[in-house]
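Justification of computing resources. Each target in the renewal requires a structure prediction run like the one illustrated here; the chain below, 259 residues long, is used simply to show the kind of job we budget for.
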Amino acid sequence: MINAINLIEPSLVAPQQVRAFCTTRHGGVSKSPFNTLNLGLNAGDDSADVLQNRIIVRSHLPTEPLWLKQIHGATVSTPINRNASSGRPFEADAAVTNIPNEVLAILTADCMPVLFASKSGGVIGAAHAGWRGLSGSVLENTLQEMLAISPGLSPRDIVVWMGPAIGPTAFEVGEDVLQAFAPQGLDILSKAFTPIVASPGKYLANLYLLARDRLRSLGIEQIDGGDFCTFNDSERFFSYRRDKETGRFASLIWISADR
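Resulting structure tokens:
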């Protein structure tokens, strides 16, 4: 933990110039049930409180974060397509950059935030990977855009951190979710989906395991994180599955201009 608002430092083994942290629910001004550091403007909270919370987080950053309009898809925001968006919130569920002090941000409250960095520190990425985005190739698309803006980079040059998400003992899903991951193969399905005996057609799904398998299949070897559960850790994290009406925390990453 660092400082008074309880930020989490990712176990991301990256060069010193790559900075990152994940907020918790502590240190803001929002009132119940968004207490207190809710950063999501579309969660139902008072917008003035959310903006004040964003100011609090901004004090720990070099620039205002690139807040995305997340839609549980697989589109990636890049420096080129951001320049063409005329300053409007970019509709995407991932972002990449090679520009120093450009802060990437992902908002979640059960879905998995995934942070990427090259071992050289020259390019970074961040993805919002709930089951829809994960099965829809948001991680693959993020990697592809990172490689596109950094010629000569390979997947082996990338390190990844999987941030706080709903854990494998709490994420109950139906047959539709299992089928969405069927292309990954029977071996990973048997490991990542545990049938709930008392509820036929229902499973406990392991998002972390599904993401790790997907990342490894892309050639990424160094993958950290995956030891959180937003649902079971109500002290630190918002959880939509647990509370329905709740806030959003942020996972942020940037390349520092101060070497």
